[in-house]
What we know:
Helices cover 51% and strands 12% of the residues of chain A. By secondary structure, the first copy, chain A, is α/β, with parallel strands linked by helices. In chain A, strand 2, helix 4 (91-104) and strand 3 (110-115) form a beta-alpha-beta unit. Chain A starts with 6 loop residues before the first helix and ends with a helix. The interface between A and B is large, with 46 and 46 residues.
Amino acid sequence: LSATVDVAELIARHREGGGWAHLARALTAVENAPPWEVVPASGPPTHVVGVTGPPGAGKSTLTGRLIEGYGDAGARIAVLAVDPSSPLTGGAVLGDRIRMEESAQGREGVYVRSLASRGSAGAVAGATRNAVRLLEACEDFDVIVIETVGAGQTEISVASLADTVLFVTVPGLGDGVQADKAGIIEVADMLVVNKADRPGAAQTARDLRVAVGRAVPVLQTAALDGQGVDVLREALDARWTELSADGRLPELRAAREASEAAVVAEAWVRRCAERARDVTEEPAGDMRATVQRILREAAETWRTT
Amino acid sequence: LSATVDVAELIARHREGGGWAHLARALTAVENAPPWEVVPASGPPTHVVGVTGPPGAGKSTLTGRLIEGYGDAGARIAVLAVDPSSPLTGGAVLGDRIRMEESAQGREGVYVRSLASRGSAGAVAGATRNAVRLLEACEDFDVIVIETVGAGQTEISVASLADTVLFVTVPGLGDGVQADKAGIIEVADMLVVNKADRPGAAQTARDLRVAVGRAVPVLQTAALDGQGVDVLREALDARWTELSADGRLPELRAAREASEAAVVAEAWVRRCAERARDVTEEPAGDMRATVQRILREAAETWRTT
């Protein structure tokens, strides 16, 4: 398996200093890489925060405020804005993201990057995982934020890459929260009622507590004027300190890696099967034997370099 | 890999005569079987016709008329009504299916069966493929019809199991047809404008011809009063005769089997990965090595018995 990205070189060049050019190039490479590409993990773990929730919940505005908060506190922050559908997102999303980028502008140590990866949920999640690994390899950030555009199947698999999954909603989206019970809320580590200056915020927070059915912090923010964002940031940092201290982090990352490895293995099998179909000269045959041939070839051609 | 169904016994018992009980039991077994289960193909090939199209196109009514037509002509027909969502389908679909079952009632040599398989598109298609193989193994049918409820991703993968894919639509669903260009129409072998007694049928037929962009028969039927159904039946039989005579059938089935084998291989890898995760005692590690371990185990544990 040929690595698309020379991570060692990226790290070396990045450390030599001189802007984000090398990092940007490496991120473009993983964006376009096939779904079985695996960038090896390197460097000490950085806190990866996934920001997800329905469109219109103000995720980008909230992320912008986090950028400002971390920046003011002297921390360095990277943001991956993942858009699984296409570069052509709705104007609302785009507008929010522009505001987020304005928060980043002119701040040293802040890196904001859109990841316009297409394909299956697995492919998008794979590209995001590789991007996160590149950012970690830089050893230059205190926090890495993955921001999704919505809360669908692809977004769930992307947000699940984070050490801390933040589900953001707003007052009045309670029904949607109920309907979502089987989805993102189940993997959320923290719930945020944004636009909490609107009526019904306390009620939505209560509904969320009931819906989630387990002990998860529920916070309230009003990202537009920054209300509650410092508390959120403190809660995030506290969780990271806890995860690092109590030994849960290696366990959490190992479990995640195992399920990501499964997705990669499936992608590799699909690729081997497609290649096998192209070159096959056999007529119809025993399908179980064909399955065996595909599995054998997949196992033999996979190289752990 | 232990076969869920003893096909040899099924065939033997079925041939001994005495109703559909053994077949019904075998179909229930494949309905509930895991997605990597493969019922081996046996018996001479039977014409498998896939009937698909948007809800409301009258697929069940048309299938009912085909049952009557084939029955009157002395042919034996099996119908698999595949409902990938759940046993709780909308009332309209249910009503149509009841009418279809009325067409079958009291007719000897007609077998109608619902397949309420859940899960991914691959799992539903796998269960349907196994069900078709059981029906073929009976060597008791001249035609096997797979009817889907809609024309989504799962339905496309189900319909693609057929030797002849019939796309059914109605006048005025032209816009939907345009939108669908990337979907089911691309795999259709025959297009049917049903409810052709309604205004705009000829225009819809012309639109379909343009949309499909290749030489595919476009027929018009009014299934409710049986209009055009005989012509459709003749077209189906003619295609089957042609496929059998010109040597395309083995090629067609081999290609289908290859892509189904890929889906089975993926399902098996996923299963091995999940099992590996349960028993793993390693901490986080090299993800590429984990992928290798999953692939090796999948190849080694797959048995072609």
